[in-house]
Amino acid sequence: MSSKPNPSSRSAFLSAAGLAVAIALLPAMASAEYRRIELKILGMDCATCAHGVRVAMQKLDGVATVELSLERAQAEVGLKPDNRLTLDQFRQVVKRNGFEPKQAAVTAIGMMRESGGRMVFEVSGVPTPLVVSPDKSTPDALQQLKSALSTKSTAVFEIMGTVEPARDGVESVAIASVRPRQ
Ligand SMILES: [Cu+2]
Q1: How far does residue 62's CA lie from ligand 1's centre (Å)?
Q2: Where are the alpha helices (DSSP H) in the chain?
């Protein structure tokens, strides 16, 4: 983030170069990331507390903008390209501030594939993929995903959808719309 010179900038540059090579070898995952997150927050009803949540989220490396809306009871976060942030990091901020994180409307780029008869969506930085909910996703989105996966094993998509808080370690996403990438 900071542009001032420091002794570790050379090694930072070298490791960044190494990372760039690694990413070049994995083009499909190069841009897998959250782009926008609107996280519902239960119990946040005062401006001072909202300010605390906003400041804490802004400190996360990769966050571009944060708006806290008391009216909509949510944090609206814009993320920088190539960030490696997870939804869980935002949930932790909410919890540390004494509130309960609920569902999140997200825009994300990631890799779609089939696993055990289910469609799953991988966003980089996220240890376990999101499971696509067939019941809550739109038929149009499901159709596009299925047809892409009928000809290849993985496909990169930008999705808009809603991620529910994890249950039994499974995080599901209801997909509203998809856009093929690459
Ligand atoms: Cu308060």
Answers
A1: 26
A2: 9-25, 47-58, 87-96, 139-149
107-180: which CATH number, 2.60.40, 2.40.50, 2.30.29, 2.60.120?
Answer: 2.40.50
Q: Provide the residue-wise pLDDT of the chain in tens; the chain has 182 residues.
A: 444 444 444 455 445 555 444 444 444 445 689 999 999 999 988 999 999 999 999 999 999 999 999 999 999 999 999 999 999 999 999 999 999 999 999 999 999 999 989 999 999 767 789 999 999 999 999 999 999 999 999 999 999 999 998 888 889 999 999 999 97
What is the architecture, at CATH level 2, of domain 37-102? 2-Layer Sandwich (3.30)
pTM of the predicted structure, to 2 decimals: 0.81
CA of 102 from ligand 1 middle (Å) equals: 18
Rounded to whole angstroms, how far apart are CA atoms 70 and 54?
Answer: 12
What is the CA(35)–ligand 1 centre distance, in A? 28
